[in-house]
Amino acid sequence: MAKGPATSEAELFPEESRCDPFFFERRAYHEGFCRVAGIDEAGRGPLAGPVVAAAVILPGESGIPRLTDSKKLTPALREELFPLIQEKALAWGIGISDADLIDRINILEATRRAMEAAVAALQPSPDYLLIDALSIDDPRPQKGIIKGDLLSHSIAAASVIAKVTRDRLMAEFHQRYPEYNFQRHKGYGTREHRRILQERGPCPIHRRTFRGVREYCSGTGKGGSRLSFPE
User: Fold this and answer.
1) C-alpha to C-alpha distances, 168 to 31, 32, 129, 163, nearest whole angstrom
2) How far apart are CA 58 and CA 92, in angstroms?
3) Residues of each domain in the chain carrying CATH 3.30.420.10
4) The whole model's pTM is what?
5) Which residues pair with 94 in a beta bridge?
6) Which residues contact 91 (CB under 8 A, 6 or more apart)?
7) CA–CA distance from 23 to each of 5, 149, 152 (Å)?
8) Per-residue CA distances from 127 to 90, 148, 169, 180 (Å)
9) In what order do the strands lie in the sheet with 51-57?
């Protein structure tokens, strides 16, 4: 499918879509689709680590209390919701694009690759895709929804799965590269992280094409061997 800008039916139906977390799912059901997958990512902006995408198919209009955009939830609540989403979902899948792939093909395309991998992991397979703000290379009908993690319960579920998965990965990277304190900032460009980069240079999981990292790539980064993820 051609990759174009996301559409937002929230602009056409503002009150309905903002008040009903299943507005977009219900429209798909009314059009005859049965398995609607919500898709979102975590980690497009950081200076280090992977971008992680998740896809979730929820059963009908089965809501999960307190579920919303993962960025609006505390880490403790995200961890609490993570197994609830997995238990309730008809299917959920995860896709990961590591820093090497991000540097090779750019963050936008790497995000799409991760989303496509997450969708491919779903069993049963979805017949309709709701995607937060993007489109992907997939033949199935799809809709990119601006602020979809706030407007669609399925996308919100995917946002939590993606965020918790990435945070756990960054905690593992912290064990490998403790001097960068990934446990605290998760690879984002905080003042502390930028100071450490200036002092030590990048490690193997830094995104060397990103501003804030490439300035310090004249030498070799500290740390051990690089973890690899499937592309």
Assistant:
1) 38, 37, 26, 9
2) 9
3) 14-170
4) 0.87
5) 54
6) 35, 37, 55, 56, 57, 122, 123, 124, 126
7) 20, 13, 7
8) 13, 18, 30, 42
9) 91-97, 51-57, 36-42, 128-132, 142-145
pLDDT at 18: 60
Phi, psi of 142 (to 5 degrees): -150, 155
The encoded tokens of residue 181 equal 């304190």
Q: Which CATH superfamily does the domain covering 14-170 fall into?
A: Ribonuclease H-like superfamily/Ribonuclease H (3.30.420.10)
Residue with tokens 């999960």: 64
Q: What is the mean pLDDT of the chain?
A: 89
43-89: pLDDT as tens digits: 999 999 999 999 999 998 889 999 998 989 999 999 999 999 999 99
Please state the separation of Cα 20 from the chain's center in Å.
23
Contact between 130 and 38 (Cβ < 8 Å): yes
Greatest Cα-to-Cα distance within the chain, rounded to the nearest angstrom: 57
Burial of residue 214 (number of CB atoms within 10 Å: 0-12, 13-18, 19+): middle
Q: Is 222 helix (H, G, I), strand (E, B) or coil?
A: coil
- 60: Cα within 13 Å, side-chain hemisphere: 2
* pLDDT, tens digit (0-9, with 9 covering 90-100), for 157-203: 999 999 999 999 999 999 999 999 999 999 999 999 999 999 999 99
For the segment 97-138, what is each residue's pLDDT rounded down to a tens digit? 999 999 999 999 999 999 999 999 999 999 999 999 999 999
CA dist., res. 213 & res. 180, Å (int)? 13
Residue 124: cis peptide before it, omega within 30 degrees of 0: yes
